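Hey, quick one: can you model this chain's 3D structure?
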Amino acid sequence: MKLHILGCGDAFGSGGRNQSGYLIEAADRLFLMDCEPTTLLAMERAGFDPRRLDVDFLSHLHGDHFGGLPFFFISDLYESARDKPLQIAGPPGTEERVGELFRLMYGGDVPPTRFHLLVPDRSELVAGIQVLPFRVPHQLRALSLGLKLSYEGKQILFSGDSAWTDIFLSHARGVDLFLCECSFYDQQSTNHMSYKILQENLARLECKKLVLTHLGEEMLKRRQQLETTFADDGMVIDL
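Sure thing. Here's the predicted structure for all 239 residues.
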């Protein structure tokens, strides 16, 4: 199994990076975590046929995390139809928000798509992939999720956008990869990760590999000084 970093930037594209999009390539599955506006472009640039995509798992409904879906839909409608509907799994409101976005951008209705509701702490099987969503501190009113995905004996933990929470400690234990957002270096935030706070908890994280993503300008300026693995657009991680 491989994780392809299609985009690892923050909402502002700091450092000229694509926004949040992560493609997992398994022997018989191809699935996404989040879908930023240029995900289709990045996926094709990496050599993947978008018709192969089985499911997209959405951590939350901010534009830099789900705004790329309409481009997959118009590709299905006007370039090459899919053999089976795309599946999308996300927090409450996903189907409505995705439909609204598509109508705003292109008009009409979303092509046949199978939506799955992700409820915190309720495990679901989507396209044969086990997903355990859990609430993380990012938005005040709407729900933001961290995602723990299991397939082919491998486990990936994705923080989504989140400040530090001790819930990461239990979910990270033993996973093959913890893909953790880290927007800030030492800035205190209630909705994004600060490296200084993460650093205080590194010894408590019992994951096999930690990769930091969603880096802001503050982190990018310091990345050469820090002994932590950072994501880059185009990076491929073997699991």
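One thing worth noting: The mean pLDDT is 96.
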